[in-house]
Amino acid sequence: MTTDLAIYDMDKTVTRRPTYTPFLLHCAMERAPWRLALLPLVALSLLAYGVKAIDRARLKEINHRLLIGAAVKERDLAAAVESFAKKTLANNLRPGAVKAIERDKAEGRKVVMATASYRFYAAAIGEALGFDHVIGTGTTGGVDDMIHAKIDGYNCYGAAKLTMIEQWLEEAGLTRAHVRFYSDHNSDAFAFEWSDEAVAVNPDEELMRIAAVRGYLVEDWG
């Protein structure tokens, strides 16, 4: 089936602020406040990432293990996921994102979120906003109904995000007609160039310069 698509990055595009670290802290505070004592180790992992001793995917795995746990039953995280989604919807949305989603749905587009954040919590946010599908970083699971502190497949970032979008299209039996893609950051350069209509949302100076050269639309969503 051929369809028009509107694909949205989440952090700092749909939301005003990032969600990944706040989600980990939210889980720690809700489920095991003692894990906050491990924040110095989180800081060390960020330092290791900063000097390129580990990559972004490994950084996620380490901080997931520290602040959520090596393996947690999905149902035991459900309450924290739900409360974080409600908090995000209440005080961390760009007003323009809500309007854009409504517009794209009214135009008959399939509305999709593609985010580097973990899908198991981003899906709750996306579903509440009316997204038709959420593509995000997966975590390994299995018959034990556990969410493990290990990424399943790709970290949905950079070139991998486009790969995961294309995989989803193939698995869903969809053929792109017209694609509108929204993001705040040039880490999504591959998806920007793949799309038919690239929209830079509240871009930083680097993306603003690139948008001027490449002909991307620029929108301020507040």
Distance between the termini: 35 Å
Count of domain modules: 1
Query: From the 3D coordinates, which CATH architecture would you assign?
Result: 3-Layer(aba) Sandwich
Give the low-pLDDT segments: none
Oligomer: single chain
What structural class do you assign from the helix and strand content?
alpha/beta
Q: Using the CA coordinates, give the radius of gyration.
A: 17 Å
The level of helicity is 40-55%
CATH topology: Rossmann fold
The CATH superfamily bears the name HAD superfamily/HAD-like
Number of helices: 9
Total strands: the figure is 9
In short:
The protein has nine helices and nine strands. With 222 residues, it is an alpha/beta fold. It has one domain: Rossmann fold, CATH 3.40.50.1000.
Could you characterize the architecture of this molecule?
It is a single chain. By secondary structure, the protein is α/β, with parallel strands linked by helices. It has one domain (2-219): Rossmann fold (3-Layer(aba) Sandwich). Helix content is 48%, strand content 22%. The chain has helices at residues 20-31, 39-50, 56-67, 74-91, 95-106, 119-128, 159-172, 189-194, 205-214; strands at residues 2-8, 71-73, 110-118, 133-139, 146-148, 151-152, 175-183, 197-201, 217-219. The strands form 2 sheets. Strands 6-4-3-1-7-8-9 form a 7-stranded mixed sheet. α2 packs antiparallel against α3 and α4 (74-91) crosses α6. The termini are far apart. The relative contact order is 0.18.
Write the layout of secondary structure elements.
Elements: E1 2-8, H1 20-31, H2 39-50, H3 56-67, E2 71-73, H4 74-91, H5 95-106, E3 110-118, H6 119-128, E4 133-139, E5 146-148, E6 151-152, H7 159-172, E7 175-183, H8 189-194, E8 197-201, H9 205-214, E9 217-219
Parallel strand pairs: 1-3, 1-7, 3-4, 7-8, 8-9
Antiparallel strand pairs: 2-5, 4-6
